[in-house]
Amino acid sequence: MPKLTKRLVESLTVESRDYFVWDDEVKGFGVRVMRSGTRTYQVQYRKGGRTRRASIGRHGTVTVQQARQRAKELLGDVASGGNPVEEISQHRRASTVAALCERFFEAHVMERCKPSTQREYRRSIDFFINPAIGTFKVVDVERRDIAELHHKLRDKPYQANRTLGVLSKMFNLAEVWGLRPDGSNPCRHVPKYRERKRERYLSQAELRRLGEVLADCERSGSESPYVVAAFKLLILTGCRLGEIQTLRWDYLTPNGMELPDSKTGARRIPLPSAARAVLDALPHDPGNPYVIAGRIEGQHITDLQHPWRRIRDLAGLNDVRIHDLRHTYASNAVSSGMPIQMVGRLLGHTQLQTTMRYAHLADDPVRKAAEENAAALSEGLGLGLRARTTPLRVVKG
């Protein structure tokens, strides 16, 4: 067996079948000459009673010196108890991130998540995760890959953080399923972007304008009575859009709306008299179980976004989202002096921290009460001061 050199490898003749020429310097290192004329460098060893062989690279792509050095490294792993060929084979068979995404979606998301969450996860997978790292092997994904993906979405901080959350959950399950070592989640220590929570509440004047537009739409027939009723119910109950959109007549009881399922599970929502009046005025088709009936027989309205855009434009509320009606309900409750815990119960929050975003609004009734109390005391002191209706001007220095 001669020592393999560039000249020797290129001088080897092509035969009717593949054959090997082994190097006399490094045992187990050789070149395979194929019937097509292609020459590939090989490494061969025995492990567990079996002969293992792997290709190092094609002649011309790698030099004989590079191939010999790589063969030494692989054979060194064997001498240390490793089995590099098996490891290479396992890596080739290893799951890709795209395959993990599908398993994650089918085995976890579809089984455990609400439809709205399923849609959000599907969007993150299809638009952000798979295009960036879908072809990566699950075992090869590193923190820098996740950080780079997250950074590319920096102009969309909310979407960036939601996508990071999807990835984190997915790689946690990859460990459970044995696709990665324990404690190897590459999303760890990747900091989230700061999100600015939007707080838009309708003033009393804006509420009046909205009410007038809803009444005009109902009278003119430009919007269906179900569309108008949906927005009235959202304002009067503080419900989430999906809770009103999919509300069924059999959910209505003397105790309120008994929802068997919602974002936070089964929920009972009080129905004040104003909301019941809206429901009583709605046409009730016995063949349609849904309160907010759609055009398709037996179905609910599937699109309230387009009607809302038409209505808000007429009311001059171009920056108001449907979810802001829920914010308005909450802000009005807190500003009227309702305890923050009670507001959380009305909104169906499971954690007080979620409701605390409205806590600062509780200062309004406190300030008003302080002014009224001080005015009464000032009368007793003979100061003759009336309750101040404008804020104090603070003089600095």
From TrEMBL:
The keyword Hydrolase does not apply. Keywords: DNA integration, DNA recombination, DNA-binding. The keyword Secreted does not apply. Signal peptide: none annotated. GO terms for biological process: DNA integration; DNA recombination. Residues 197-371 form the Tyr recombinase domain. Residues 95-175 form the Core-binding (CB) domain. Pfam families: Arm-DNA-bind_3 (PF13356), Phage_int_SAM_3 (PF14659), Phage_integrase (PF00589). GO terms for molecular function: DNA binding. InterPro entries: CB, DNA_brk_join_enz, Integrase-like_cat_sf, Integrase_catalytic, Integrase_DNA-bd_sf, Integrase_DNA_bind_dom, Integrase_recombinase_N, Integrase_SAM-like_N. Belongs to the 'phage' integrase family. PANTHER family: PROPHAGE INTEGRASE, PROPHAGE INTEGRASE INTS-RELATED. This is Phage integrase family protein. It comes from Dinoroseobacter shibae (strain DSM 16493 / NCIMB 14021 / DFL 12).
